[in-house]
Design a protein that fits this description.
With 203 residues, the chain is mainly alpha-helical. The chain has helices spanning 6-9, 23-26, 33-47, 52-64, 84-92, 105-125, 127-132, 136-154, 159-170, 172-183, 193-196, and strands spanning 186-187, 191-192. The chain has one domain (9-196). A two-stranded antiparallel sheet has the order 1-2.
Length: 203
């Protein structure tokens, strides 16, 4: 049964937990969405007038990928992908070139969305790493293009999602700046967020 359009957006569940509690520091994978939303909303008031829908998507994205194991998608051979080029090649494999059974447009769109997320996280939070590889500019260009592709895919399915991804594509560089600022933000307990989330990369 083909995936439905809402599976591409994949919102994280809302949490009513008070993010001022120490659980944010003890277990960074839990209860972070409200924290991210508040911090990003504050940052984008100064950086760029990002819409509430786009801020919601970014906060959901960060909560979803706060464990680095979630950041590395596996290809059809079961191997983790860390290079943008590998992800794009894998996405193209769902276009049906190898036969009708490989035509899976929803899976392609989901992977393209992941390319946008991955490029944004890497360019925003791991500048030094991406500069050692292909360069930050490449990550920005690939991320912009990925979000715009998803916006086009979503256009006939859900106008709201299409607008959000279109906005993220247009404002990609500002989003990179917002994530870079977030990394330096202290969290409850006196620790910087960058020291407890996405701090140990499994390259």
């Amino acid at each position: 049964m083909p995936a439905t359009s809402h599976q591409i957006f994949l919102h994280a569940e809302e949490s009513s937990i008070d993010i001022r509690r120490a659980t944010v520091v003890n277990d960074p994978s839990r209860h972070l969405q409200p924290y991210f939303r508040a911090e990003l909303a504050r940052a984008f008031q100064e950086i760029y007038p990002l819409s509430p829908g786009a801020v919601d998507y970014l906060s959901d994205m960060l909560a979803r990928y706060c464990r680095t194991s979630q950041l590395f998608r596996k290809n059809r051979a079961g191997e983790a992908m860390t290079a943008l080029a590998d992800m794009m090649v894998e996405a193209q494999g769902y276009r049906g070139h190898e036969g009708l059974e490989t035509f899976r447009p929803f899976e392609e769109a989901r992977l393209i969305r992941h390319v946008g997320d991955y490029a944004l996280i890497m360019a925003g939070l791991f500048k030094e790493y991406v500069e050692r590889r292909a360069g930050r500019r490449l990550y920005i260009e690939v991320g912009q293009r990925a979000y715009r592709q998803v916006a086009g895919f979503e256009a006939p399915l859900d106008r709201h999602r299409s607008r959000v991804f279109g906005e993220l594509g247009e404002a990609f560089e500002f989003c990179v700046t917002g994530l870079s600022r977030l990394r330096r933000t202290p969290v409850p307990g006196g620790t910087r967020w960058g020291e407890i989330c996405l701090s140990k990369m499994a390259w």
